[in-house]
Specification:
By secondary structure, the chain is mostly helical. 50% of the residues lie in helices and 0% in strands. The longest helix is centred in the first third of the chain and has 10 residues.
Length: 78
């Protein structure tokens, strides 16, 4: 996570803000603890991190199944 974040030139605060924009509660201190291995990522956080850092496109993960999520700007109905 740190490597990709740094490749993008993002601070820990910027990643935390991107996670909050995706609907996942996060703070700079949370990002720091995860990067140091002091706190595990929850599954929802891991998906949000991958999405925020451009490591995965949710449509590829979720497929054609109608879904509703805060992590993408899809227009699919539930």
């Amino acid at each position: 996570m740190r490597k990709k974040r740094e490749e993008l030139g993002w601070s820990q605060q910027e990643l935390a803000e991107a996670l909050r924009d995706a609907g996942v509660s996060s703070h700079q201190t949370t990002v720091a603890k995860v990067e140091r291995g002091e706190r595990p990522l929850k599954m929802t956080e891991a998906v949000a991190v991958a999405y925020a850092l451009g490591m995965v496109k949710l449509d590829e993960v979720l497929g054609e199944t109608p879904h509703r999520c805060r992590l993408c700007l899809c227009t699919a109905s539930a």
